Amino acid sequence: xxxxxxxxxxxxxxxxxxxxxxxxxxxxxxxxxxxxxxxxxxxxxxxxxxxxxxxxxxxxxxxxxxxxxxxxxxxxxxxxxxxxxxxxxxxxxxxxxxxxxxxxxxxxxxxxxxxxxxxxxxxxxxxxxxxxxxxxxxxxxxxxxxxxxxxxxxxxxxxxxxxxxxxxxxxxxxxxxxxxxxxxxxxxxxxxxxxxxxxxxxxxxxxxxxxxxxxxxxxxxxxxxxxxxxxxxxxxxxxxxxxxxxxxxxxxxxxxxxxxxxxxxxxxxxxxxxxxxxxxxxxxxxxxxxxxxx
Length: 294
Prior knowledge:
The protein has helices at 20-46, 61-67, 81-99, 102-132, 136-141, 146-180, 185-225, 243-246, and strands spanning 11-14, 230-234, 252-254, 259-261, 266-268, 279-284. By secondary structure, the protein is α+β, with helices and mostly antiparallel strands. It has a four-stranded antiparallel β-sheet.
């Protein structure tokens, strides 16, 4: 149930901070997924290619060697390293999608965002309650934002699913490119190991950003549900603040739109950019002046 709040003198509340513990938990989960996927990819593809180098696939012996790992190929595929690799990659991809299936990833997203939502809800209404005198329990009971929160949770799930699929696509594309460049198997393996480490780092960074983004979006939604439409951008005020976030510091903006800056050409909310530590100070509106004699 949407309700509008106000105070005689106005006021402000600081949006709840993202949960660092959940940021780390999701980051660890993403690193684990990449690690498990890379181990299986290495064992079921590159280990099967290990009998020699790429040149091995120019002979009939290649199909016999690969058959020991459960792979079979047509005569047209024998001697064509790229086709052999693609067949193996497709088989391994299907196994990994089964291991990290959509239901598992959706459950993970709901678990992580559920923790953030529970804490955000409790803390947000506690801070509002202190300003307007209405109990936080009453505010929580009349919220009615299940549909919006579910949509934000789904967005997190879609990101995790995309990370899974894009990781395997990147490994496949990069290996094919190296084959086209005439690289041998040791070179390909070395490149693959480097990609795995970079992918882990990227997944962990985006996981932290995703939790921060979810927290920022539910704060915005709860504020607007109470009739709070304005906020002030506040940075962490240290040397790590990005220049384009620094120029936003102290500026008021509309919560429905975010804050635009020509510095980066983006319209943002605090906390939704990569590893953004900025926060929003929500502006509680003043009560309308009563008209004497009317």
